[in-house]
Amino acid sequence: MSSKLLRGTFILTLGTFISKFLGLFYVIPFYQIVGSEGTLLYQYSYVPYTIFISIATAGVPLAVSKFISKYNALEEYAVGRKLFKSGILIMLASGIACFLIMFIGAPAFAKIFTDVNDPQLLGDITSVIRAVSFALIIIPFMSLIRGYFQGHQSMGPSAVSQVVEQIVRIAFLLAGAFVVMNIMNGDLVTAVSVATFAAFIGGLGSLFVLFWYWYKRKPYLDELLEQDKGTTDISLIDMYKEIIVYSIPFVLVGIANPLFQFIDLSTFNKAMQSIGYSIKESGEALSILNYQTHKLVIIPVTLAIAFSMTLVPSITKAFVEEDRSSMTRQLNQTFQVVLFLTLPAAVGLALLSEPIYTLFYEHDILGSEVLRAYAPVAMLFALYSVTAAILQGINEQRFTVLSLLVGILVKLSLNIPLIKWMETEGAILATALGYVAAILINLFVIKTFSGYKFRLVFRRGLLIIIFTVIMLIATLITYKLMTIFLSPASNFQSIIIVVICAGVGAGLYFFMATKSRLIHFLFGDKLDRVLIKLKIKRA
Known about the structure:
Layout: H1 3-25, H2 27-57, H3 60-73, H4 77-104, H5 106-112, H6 119-133, H7 139-151, H8 156-183, H9 188-226, H10 236-254, H11 256-274, H12 279-297, H13 302-320, H14 324-351, H15 353-360, H16 365-374, H17 377-393, H18 397-422, H19 424-450, H20 455-485, H21 491-515, H22 518-523, H23 525-534
């Protein structure tokens, strides 16, 4: 993997991690303000919003970055600038159109995206959907600017704007919900509506950062225009045909997780009620599944999301230049790094599910059990994100569509039967099976069309699994010893348990990776220099 890709990946990984980190920890005070009923109402609005955002942006950041990276490799810089100028108006138009559709159609979407029949609850969901719809106005425009920078291998603007967007959104969300509930003595629906409207406020903060970067980087981008070969003249119609071909798979990949959640929102309550649960009990279980535990499970996937964003322009460049050896090295390193970081995180999350759930929310046996079952699925989320991004990079987008449709069909077919058989864990198993089906298709296509060999990944993967098992045993022993004296039912004692157990597990894992030189093979000379400074690299 080139140093530029590693640098870009690191920047986006750091930005995405900080963004996800903030997105994780705000749920603690937010849950305390609005409770499980409020978080469920929040989720009812955010799943359709996420789907609409993906449609409104049309996969713009990755599609535009791939398009610009392709023509930059050919030194046709004017093509990308032409796309950017025309895309501004189109993104504004698509954002406003999606906003109007979502705002006006909120009552219908409330019925479509949920399986509740209570008129009062449907009215509440409608209000919250309308509040979040305002963000659709500016998000597509913002996504175009991010994609333009990423196409020039400049990941800083996207990373910084993500962090600022999250900080502004969370600050407004928590302050607004708190003021409504505790100072104005308002109702829960108003508090959650303010919380969802925070997406619009966060978007404004992100847009400000991107404008600042554009002002600072424009002289350099203008210099590139002067080096333009000028041998390629693409009409706007042909340009957008190419963007649409790129974007449709990106849209489907972007809404993959929300679509799986949508299936749960539209089937879970009915399935649970059919086996004797009340609407309140099934609603609480759905909130735990689709909001509380999902927020925790998605954290280990952060690296995969960052890699999928940086993979596309880099692999596209190698593909266009027919540099197969470079592409193979990038794929080898990407698969290994994702496995190296995601597997132990998912295993550790499952092992420490009870104190972690207590730490973030409250002590709840069902929540702990659901998190324990759900945590390993993080590995599948990560692999799907990366394999889908690779397919885009090698111009096999059609199979991304196929794999997602197969995964959705598996989830849809099995969800209700498995929920009736295994309750909440049944929905998790249906999700896992759907992702497994999609990943297997992606891996088969990658092997078939790129000639990529998985032998090195299998060998290194086995070593990573061995290290993870050793880490798991050591952490489990530590956990059992600590629970003799400390209780995972206590918030304060859960902090102690999580910090010590995670420290033991991560420390041992990092030690084994360092001594075996595995970490050197994955991250290269730059990490060696860091280890030397820390005086933990062996002579």
